[in-house]
Backbone:
């Protein structure tokens, strides 16, 4: 008797100011990439090496401009945190990409949130276990539309911020990234072949904190618009 397995659905994200969509392949997430966030997580100095993890493509919760996304509070946690991030969308395939050529591989940029089960993460760290369960869960990657680099240029400076119920919690400038976008792309390409459809969440500023049901998160990055998500 043969078995039939359903194919994984193709995850796509709209491209700003067009009818086109960006088909997502992989999601890379960079950790400890702003000094203030590294310190608030207990690291007194920047990491000597780049730290990253993955989320599944279907963790994306797309939120259209002017709309409010609905983020379901995840099971298994009593302490879920917000993390606003600049997201880089890649448009070319490459391996061992030199830093000086890395930005040529960027298709565009977006505003994203890396939602985190902080209590699970802390417990897994304490036990010395991987903390995938803290990061890779349903709707854990809210994301706005992708803006083509030809329209917005390369996002190497500009305010990045997040508010909860109108009260600002996170604010920094993307110029404060410890590991630059070019370096991140180059480094990742030494470990895996990068390809069109890859997204890179580049790290969050200091000020991360808990959210509860009913909270409204609004986040933005200069030149990329805003993202609004309600916790349900």
Residues:
């Amino acid at each position: 008797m043969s078995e039939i397995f359903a194919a994984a659905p193709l995850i796509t994200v709209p491209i700003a100011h067009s009818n086109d969509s960006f088909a997502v392949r992989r999601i890379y997430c960079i950790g400890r990439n702003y000094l203030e966030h590294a310190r608030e997580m207990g690291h007194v100095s920047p990491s000597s090496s780049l730290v990253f993890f993955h989320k599944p493509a279907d963790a994306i919760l797309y939120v259209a401009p002017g709309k409010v996304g609905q983020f379901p509070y995840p099971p298994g946690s009593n302490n879920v945190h917000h993390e606003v991030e600049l997201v880089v969308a890649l448009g070319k395939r490459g391996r061992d990409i030199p830093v000086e050529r890395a930005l040529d591989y960027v298709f565009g940029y977006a505003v994203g949130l890396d939602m985190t089960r902080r209590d699970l993460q802390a417990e897994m760290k304490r036990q010395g276990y991987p903390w995938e369960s803290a990061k890779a869960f349903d709707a854990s990657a809210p994301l706005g539309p992708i803006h083509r680099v030809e329209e917005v240029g390369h996002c190497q400076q500009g305010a990045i911020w997040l508010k909860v119920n109108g009260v600002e919690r996170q604010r920094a400038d993307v110029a404060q990234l410890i590991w630059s976008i070019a370096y991140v792309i180059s480094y990742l390409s030494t470990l895996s072949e990068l390809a069109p459809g890859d997204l890179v969440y580049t790290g969050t500023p200091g000020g991360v904190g808990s959210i509860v049901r009913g909270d409204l998160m609004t986040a933005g990055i200069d030149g990329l618009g805003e993202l609004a998500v309600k916790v349900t």
Q: What stands out?
A: The first helix runs from residue 35 to 40. The chain has four helices and 18 strands. The two ends are 43 Å apart (CA to CA). The first strand starts at residue 12 and ends at 14.
